[in-house]
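Problem statement: downstream parser choked on a complex file, so we are re-checking the raw output for the flavin-adenine dinucleotide run. The parser issue turned out to be on our end (a line-ending mismatch), but while we're here, posting the original submission so the record is complete.
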Amino acid sequence: MDDKGESDICIIGAGIGGLTAGALLTKKGYEVAIFEKEALIGGRALSFDDLTSFTLERYKELLSRFHMHIQFSDPDLQIIFEKKMLRGYKLDLGYHAIGGGVLSNLNSILSELNDHVDILESYVGLIKDDGFDFPFLSRTDKLKILPNLLRLLFSSEKTMKQLDSVSMKETIEKYGKGKMKLILEIFSRSITTVNNLDRISTGEMFRAQRNLYRGSKPVGYPKNGLNAIHQKLADFITKKGGEIHLEKPVKKILFDGKKATGVFVGNKEHYFKTIVSNILIQDLFTIADEKYFPKEYVKNIKSLTGTGSLCAYYSLKKIDSNLPGKTFHFIERDVGVDGKDAVGMIDFMASLPESGLSPFDHLVQSYIICTPDEAKNKKMLQSLRELLDKNLEGLIPDFRSNLNWAIYPAVWHLDGVAKTIDNKKIDIRTPVENLYVIGDCVKAPGIGFNCALNSAKMLCENFPSLS
Ligand SMILES: Cc1cc2nc3c(=O)[nH]c(=O)nc-3n(C[C@H](O)[C@H](O)[C@H](O)COP(=O)(O)OP(=O)(O)OC[C@H]3O[C@@H](n4cnc5c(N)ncnc54)[C@H](O)[C@@H]3O)c2cc1C
């Protein structure tokens, strides 16, 4: 703290973006204080080490604060909680697959902190009407397709910028034939969690996808769950003297003219040289008076939309020995969603004993993409559930007779801002002096988790090392 009573940096929110920024800035020698409104860290990537310590009411309440609810379950959720059927399972709020495996952005950031997480990683297969292909691309496909695909993905940044406003539909019409068409149709949807190809930005999709071609397998998930990552970042921050205050919602950002000067938490004002907001960008004006921002900026932020999905977690007594460790895509044609076709994934990485996620039986994670509005529509969710179950049945025909339990979380704020041509994402630096925004809602490479990590890294480039 300096002689004006100001500390260095305040971060609002302990999501993966806030924690990463906190750790990197602490390493550079800054005093960092993080205020988080929840009792747990991790934000939308929050993972539960032991859900049996939660009452059903607390679980439901927490989900609702993250724009989610359990739409279906088998048996009834009340019974699942009463019988403590989730004991020993590590679940996230809803299924996550992190783009890039062992060579992902995550471990490159952790290596700066001399740390590392072990990552499970998988190629992706495709579920078909009569079985499945694993991997999705055969050797011959790879020889035919990969050179063209890589040429597209590794275009210059100038070309990428032009492609930002070109829809995937146009790109597929131009380059997509045979299996190349199928790859572009499926991967662009699964990476962006948007089914409507007219909306998906080719530039955003290619930037995110090339992240996955750095030598590792395309899909990854940390052993012992996402919490293993958050805990490492939080430990680094606190060991170096940083502070993480839980259950401390920031009620207001304080301003002095055109400058952000601090935050109001509890019933106290705290002053900082820099304020970094990690909250959903659409919520910024619930804590910051919009009169301090240009009108166009406010209007744009209010217009930004996120993405949605229906997830399913299945606990199965047994599965075929050829499935653990593998991940599969599926595409369902003309099923009434925005964009007509719906893409989803069924993932058996968590069913490996070394995942540390399902100690007794086999945990299968899955999701199917929909829009935020579709994720609130009961009739739509019912048909999406049927599609998830049908695809699992394609891989495990007798899955129902092996089922311990299943829960289906629906989420209508999965990605903070959909990476589409109609959303105009904002820069990390805001028009207000000393105020920055980070997370998956801002202009940074990658999507979802990776975008949040990269935004934190970009933020830190604005701060010279003090040591
Ligand atoms: C069900 C689900 C599945 C997903 N699947 C994937 C996936 O497969 N792959 C992928 O890459 N991404 C996925 N995502 C998205 C990914 O989780 C997010 O991109 C990432 O976690 C965003 O991190 P963040 O730091 O930007 O923000 P958040 O995680 O939203 O963090 C913001 C934090 O701010 C806190 N906060 C809010 N208001 C205040 C306040 N006033 N004061 C203090 N604190 C406040 C919140 O509690 C939260 O902890 C998924 C998300 C969900 C919900």
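For whoever reads this later: The mean pLDDT is 93.
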